[in-house]
Design goal:
10 helices, single chain, elongated, alpha+beta
């Protein structure tokens, strides 16, 4: 299934010991960029969460916000080292006084709590710790699943747009095919005049003339470009049905653009040039959307 890189998912879990909330947000990005906001108590698990996010969500800017709130002191796992924090607070207040200014007690207390060893980690039962982590992991996975669901819905909406843009380019290509034979008389007249001028020239060279003639015929012929463009459009739609990734769709769109540009440069016809501009307009919409597909 086609997935957008824009998504959001939230999940929560609660029991008698702890309340867990996990929010996963993804945005458009050329590479995989992961940011985790989580309690320091579980900082040793960050690598595991990063690997999970990368595997499940793939490309994009990914943000995880994990909030774990113990319901009791026993479940907190850490307690404030009050004696040390008091000592930090007293020393910081005295230092502020010596420097000749009065610091806010709230700010100084905040600084004291950020000093080394301001918290003591209590011994936690390994079985209980494993259970808590399992609950956290399941909550994060649930948030990821909801984010994927969101991205899939966005991807399906984008797929409909892609099909519309490709169909429009196809319609313009049909009009190019209709106009192509109508420009032949003008091109023929131009070539005949050029041939007449060459034949009247005393320096007329038959071999050079044949080379120039082949050059002009190839210069104005857009038959191959029309066939290749039609094939690229068909290939793009096939990739959509397969749920192709954004990079592949972007590559195909570049090939589509190459054929459109060549038709525009070789056609030498005002009506076809106008159709080419309209095709380019639809193609730009496609390129813009492929940048937001996983």
């Amino acid at each position: 299934m086609l997935q957008s890189m824009t998504g959001f998912g939230s999940a929560s879990f609660e029991n008698e010991k702890v309340a867990i909330t996990a929010d996963v947000k993804t945005l458009n990005s050329k590479f995989t960029d992961i940011f985790c906001r989580m309690p320091k108590t579980f900082s040793d698990k960050e690598v595991e969460l990063r690997n999970l996010l990368s595997t499940e969500l793939g490309r994009g800017k990914i943000e995880l916000s994990l909030n774990v709130v113990p319901k009791s002191e026993a479940g907190a796992g850490t307690v404030v080292n009050r004696s040390l924090v008091k000592a930090y607070f007293k020393d910081l207040m005295e230092t502020a006084a010596e420097l000749g200014f009065e610091g806010s007690k709230t700010d100084i207390l905040r600084m004291a709590t950020m000093m080394p060893n301001a918290y003591n980690s209590e011994a936690v039962n390994e079985e209980e710790a494993a259970e808590d982590w399992n609950n956290i992991l399941n909550t994060v996975k649930a948030a990821i699943d909801k984010c994927i669901e969101f991205r899939t819905q966005e991807g399906q909406a984008t797929k409909v747009k892609f099909e519309e843009y490709i169909a429009n380019i196809g319609q313009f290509l049909d009009k190019v095919a209709e106009q192509d034979p109508k420009r032949i008389p003008v091109i023929r007249e131009r070539l005949q005049k050029a041939i007449s001028d060459w034949e009247q020239n005393e320096n007329f060279n038959k071999d050079r003339f044949e080379q120039e003639l082949i050059y002009y015929v190839e210069k104005y012929d857009i038959s191959e470009e029309k066939v290749r463009l039609a094939n690229h459009l068909k290939y793009f739609v096939e990739e959509l049905k397969k749920g192709g990734n954004g990079k592949r769709l972007n590559f195909i769109s570049q090939e589509i653009g190459r054929e459109i540009n060549t038709i525009g440069s070789k056609a030498n016809d005002a009506i076809i040039q106008k159709l080419v501009v309209q095709m380019k307009d639809e193609l730009e919409k496609i390129k813009e959307q492929t940048m937001n597909i996983v």
